[in-house]
Amino acid sequence: MPMTEQATGAHHPQPRPRSGGQSAPEHVTGAQSLIRSLEEVGADTVFGIPGGAILPAYDPLMDSGKVRHVLVRHEQGAGHAATGYAQATGRVGVCMATSGPGATNLVTPIADAHMDSVPLVAITGQVASKAIGTDAFQEADIVGITMPITKHNFLVTKAEDIPRVIAQAFHIASTGRPGPVLVDIAKDALQARTTFSWPPIMDLPGYRPVTKPHAKQIREAAKLITSARRPVLYVGGGVLKARATAELKVLAELTGAPVTTTLMALGAFPDSHPLHVGMPGMHGAVSAVTALQKADLIVALGARFDDRVTGKLDSFAPYAKIVHADIDPAEIGKNREADVPIVGDAREVIADLIQAVQKEHSEGHRGDYEAWWKDLSRWRDTYPLGYDQPDDGSLSPQQVIERIGQLAPEGTVFAAGVGQHQMWAAHFIRYEKPATWLNSGGAGTMGYAVPAAMGAKAGAPDRAVWAIDGDGCFQMTNQELTTCALNNIPIKVAVINNGALGMVRQWQTLFYNQRYSNTVLHSGPDDVNPQARGTRVPDFVKLSEAMGCYAIRCEDPADLDKVIEEANSINDRPVVVDFIVHEDAMVWPMVAAGTSNDEIMAARDVRPDFGDSEDD
Fold this sequence. Notes:
The two termini are about 50 Å apart. α17 links the parallel β15 and β16 (about 435-440). The protein has 23 helices and 20 strands. By secondary structure, the protein is of the alpha/beta class.
C-alpha cells in the first residue's frame, strides 16, 4: 500500500531516544525488542488480550516498568479504549491482539479510528512466516483485511525490522492527518534472537505531509473573508487534532464571523461564545444549518463536507464560495469544489489567516456583517434547542443528559455511544474546552462509549469521565466494566434506557407508519416468552453489580439530581446509572436523509420560517 498522506491534525516530532545518541546494541528476542521499542516511543498503556501468536510478546511485557497492559474482555474493547485514550490525551493509542479472530475483532475500532482520524497503533500477532498462506490455525490476512481502513500497515517477518517498523508506525499514526496503523508480526519474528538499538533509521520515501500553507492561497482567503457579507467558519475535528483551538478563537473574534462546530469538533470553540451558532448537520441547530445554507462564504477548517453536514449535496450552501483548508489534499474538492483550496496543518493555516486578515484590516478592508448577524440572532433566538417534558411524568432523556452535564465536575470528559443519546449529549451538554467530547462520528459505532470512556480515564486518571450510552449500545460492550472494576478505572456510565433502539424507532415512527420492527430491546414477543412480560431483560443494575460496579436505577424526575450527585461522589469503582426514560422522545431538529438542508424541521411538524420570501 503506498504511504500516501490522508488527514487533518497535529504533527508530532519523530520518535527519539530517551538519552542522547544511539543506544548500545542489546541482544534480545524479537518480542523483547517490541516492548523496548514501545517504551522508547513513549507508549505507557496498551489495551489487549493475549493469544497464541502474540504470546511471545506478553512475556517481556510482564517485566516492563514503563508500559502498563490493560487486559480487556473483548478485542473490540481494546481498540475503542485505545481510541478513547488517544482522543482524551492527544497521544497515540495502542491496542494488541493475537492472530485470526483476535485481529479481526479489531477491524471495527480500526475502521472507526480511520473515519475519525484518530492516531492508533494496532499490534497483532501472526502465524509463523512459513505458515502464512497455508490456512494455518488462527491465520487471517489482517494486513489485507485492514488495508482500506488504515493509514498504513506493516507485515513484519524479521526480528531485526521490529524497532524500525514500530518507530515508523507511531510517526505515521501521529503526523499529518492522524490515523490508525496496523503492525502484524509473525510469531517466529517475535521468537527469533536479534539486537536492539535506538533510534532506528527512519526512511519513509513518499511520506511528506504538507503542513505549511501556500501564502497566495492564504491571501486569497483573507480577501474573501473581508469582502463577504455572510461568511461562516465551518470548523471540523481537524482543528482539535491540530491543537488549534486558541488560534481559532483569535480568528473568529478578529473577523466577527459566526462559528459552527461539527459533531467531531465540539469543544474546539466554546459553546457559550456569542459567535457560536451551534452544531450543523442532520440533527444540527437550526441556526447552524441555516447559516451554512444562506452563507455567501464558507471557510472550512479541518472539515470534510460529509453527508451528515451537507444533506443533499447539490442543494447545500447554494450561494457560498468555498475556502477549504485541510492537511489531506484528498479531502479538498472531494465533495464540494473549493474556490480557494489550502493544504496545510490547521494550526498553521489559522495562524497565517490571522495575519492576512489583520493586513486586510490595516488596508481598510473589513467585513460588514451587521445585517448577517441580525438574521443569525433571529434564527438562534426563535429556534433554540429545547425539549418537552413527558406528559406522563416519566423521565425526559434530554433532561437527564442536561443535568449530568450541569452537575459534572469541571473538566469532565463525556463519551457517547451512537444514536439519540449521542445527539442529545451533543445538544444539551455544554462543551467549552477541547478533549471533553468523545464519540464515533464517521462510523457511528454502537458499543463505542464504555470502552472509549475506559481508555480516556486510563489516559487521564485525574479527570472525571462519563459515558452517555443507550441501552442498545450498552449491551454491545458492557463487559469492559469488568475491566474497569479490576483495573481501578472508575468511569461513570449513564444508560439512557428507553427499552428500544431509539434512533431506529424514531425513523420507524416518522417514515415507516409506526411499524416497530425489531427495535424493542427489553422484552421479546409475548408469545415467545409470556413469563417475561412486564420485566426488563437484562436488569442493568444486577448486571452491573455482577461486574463489580456500583449501580443505581432512576425512574422519577424528583430523584434525578440526587442520583447524579451520588454517582459523582463515588470514585473508587465504576458507577452505572440505569435511567428509565420516556420511549417516544425524539431528536430535533432533523433533516431527513437524502433531503435538502432547506427542509430542516425544528420539531415535529414545525418548519422554520426564515422570514425571506426569496433568497439573495
